[in-house]
Specification:
heterodimer; A: mainly alpha; MetI-like fold; B: Rossmann fold; six-stranded mixed beta sheet; three-stranded antiparallel beta sheet; 7 helices
């Protein structure tokens, strides 16, 4: 550019101002915005304020409230016969009766006890097997094929066998839940360990970390995100398995309540149990999310808009 | 640390093959105390293999290698643990060292104020400086650097190189710097080893010229010569030459 200009001016100084000066903006720079390029004004709104985000939380309520309204109205105008599906009002009444008499608490605690015990066993087993398979090649060879087989066995089909093996009381129920949750924990602990960045492990070695140090500072925290996903899946499936398990001779528990509703054609009872299941599921999810937020504060992930 | 007459690093007859394919053969060199040696060569010439052997990360090599017990590695990627705060990363694996030591090391690279940040929030240059602090806090007798500035943008790289040169002269560091950047090697090292097809093809002493004067004739001459031995045979085109 500078070379061009000097050579031009040496050839004819009179050309200098007429060629050099006006040529600069049009030839040297991109064309002005008005000259045929489609432009747009961006709607800059400044930094996002917090209240705007939390303000949207009412949006979560839209769908459930609308469904409830349709359900209640449908019952009132006869579109949904109450023999098929009781109205929300009668469900609420039944819920209140069960809750105030202490029945609900008794059934709920019986179910919770089974599910928590089963889940605890499942976590213990899944963790042990997952760590064995994740850390050691031999462990992987011994454990993994069996676990992959277990995955494809429907737990529902195991129930009769469990009754024969473990009787009809608490043991088959708890063990069914334990076995069903083990896999979720196992596969995510194992995968979590195997997915730990080997470059970080190498860096840890050069920093003088011992085997134990590597485990504590690199492998466990590195495997944690996926292990927590396993926990979430296990929690969810422990509820599902509870329904299956409580089909086995149950006097007390949400499954028994469900069974009673079926026997006496009381749909409102069934709906109450379903709602309780749903609420428990949400609570479990909130718990794991809270755990994740605390344990994985270091992560910078996309949070949605 | 007493002044030793024996070189801290002594490599004799080092060879390495992967699945029968030789990547390194018959390599001898020393690194003296306080000396920065740059290892340059095209990709695949075995630079990183040497560094990994010296770091103790590759025990499958043959030959005789003596290195200081206290050594630290800075990789091309920072390799900070994302779940630990910056300061905890700096003193990771260091017995009896805590926050004060971490802060002192971070101050040396000018990043004290980021002690409580998570690595994911740092820029590339900052993360690499933290990695440098993490290496320095160990007071290594040998610092191994594997293209430490390779992933940085040009401006950040200049600053990081200057910082490294400062730290080297202040701490009298012995270091092995693996790089493919001839200019970087000349700016930072006392001696440049040229690696070609798994052998040291040339060793060039870098005179104590004004290191940062890239236009000085001796710098240009060395630069051209090294580039030529790397197979880049035309003279460097310079804007004002």
């Amino acid at each position: 550019m500078s070379l061009l200009k000097t050579s031009l001016s040496t050839i004819d100084p009179a050309l200098g101002p007429s060629l050099g000066a006006p040529a600069e903006p049009s030839a040297g720079r991109p064309a002005a915005a008005s000259a045929g390029v489609a432009t747009e004004q961006l709607a800059l709104a400044g930094p996002r304020r917090r209240w705007r985000v939390s303000d949207q939380s009412w949006a979560r309520a839209i769908t459930p409230v609308a469904l409830l309204a349709i359900w209640q109205l449908g019952g009132m105008i006869g579109f949904l016969p109450t023999r098929t599906l009781s109205s929300p009002a009668s469900v609420a009444r039944t819920f209140w009766d069960l809750a105030s008499s202490g029945d609900l608490a008794a059934h709920l605690s019986a179910s919770l006890r089974r599910s928590v015990t089963g889940l605890a066993l499942g976590i213990l087993g899944g963790l042990g097997l997952g760590v064995a398979a994740g850390l050691f090649k031999l462990g992987e060879k011994i454990v993994d094929p069996a676990m992959q087989m277990l995955r494809s066995v429907p737990m529902l089909a195991l129930a009769p066998l469990f009754v024969i093996w473990f009787g009809i009381y608490e043991r088959p129920k708890i063990l069914l839940i334990a076995l069903g949750t083990t896999y979720h924990i196992y596969v995510n602990v194992y995968g979590g360990i195997r997915n730990v960045d080997s470059r970080l492990v190498e860096a840890g070695v050069t920093l003088g970390l011992t085997r134990r140090g590597l485990l504590r500072h690199v492998i466990v925290p590195g495997a944690l995100p996926q292990a927590l996903i396993g926990l979430r899946l296990a929690l969810a499936s422990s509820w599902l398995l509870l329904v299956v398990a409580e089909q086995i001779n149950t006097k007390e528990g949400l499954g028994a309540l469900l069974d009673r509703g079926r026997t006496f054609m009381r749909t409102e009872l069934i709906v109450v149990v379903l709602v309780v299941y749903a609420v428990l599921g949400i609570l479990a999810d909130v718990f794991v999310r809270w755990l994740e937020r605390r344990a994985l504060a270091w992560r910078r992930t996309f949070a949605g808009q | 640390m007493s002044d030793l007459t024996v070189a801290p690093v002594e490599v004799r007859g080092l060879a390495r093959a992967f699945d029968g394919r030789t990547v390194l053969s018959d390599t001898d060199f020393d690194i003296a105390r306080g000396e920065v040696v740059a290892l340059i060569g095209a990709s695949g010439s075995g630079k990183s293999t040497i560094l990994r052997v010296l770091a103790g990360l590759d025990l499958g090599a043959e030959g005789s290698v003596r290195v200081p017990r206290r050594r630290a590695v800075v990789f091309q990627d920072h390799r900070l643990l994302p779940w630990k705060h910056v300061w905890a990363n700096v003193v990771l694996g260091l017995d009896g060292a805590g926050r004060p030591q971490a802060l002192a090391a971070l101050a040396e690279v000018g990043l004290e104020h980021l002690a409580d940040a998570y690595p994911a929030t740092l820029s590339g240059g900052e993360a690499q400086r933290v990695a440098l602090a993490r290496a320095l806090v160990r007071e290594p007798d040998l610092l191994l650097l594997d293209e430490p500035f390779g992933a940085l943008d040009a401006l950040t790289r200049l600053n990081a190189q200057r910082l490294f040169a400062d730290l080297c002269s202040r701490h009298r560091l012995s270091a092995l710097l693996v790089t493919h950047d001839v200019e970087e090697a000349l700016l930072l090292a006392h001696r440049v080893l040229l690696l070609d097809a798994g052998r040291i093809a040339a060793a060039v002493d870098v005179p104590r010229l004004d290191h940062w004067d890239r236009d000085s004739p001796s710098f240009v001459e060395l630069h051209t010569r090294l580039l030529a031995s790397l197979g880049v045979d035309h003279a460097r085109s310079r804007p004002n030459a």
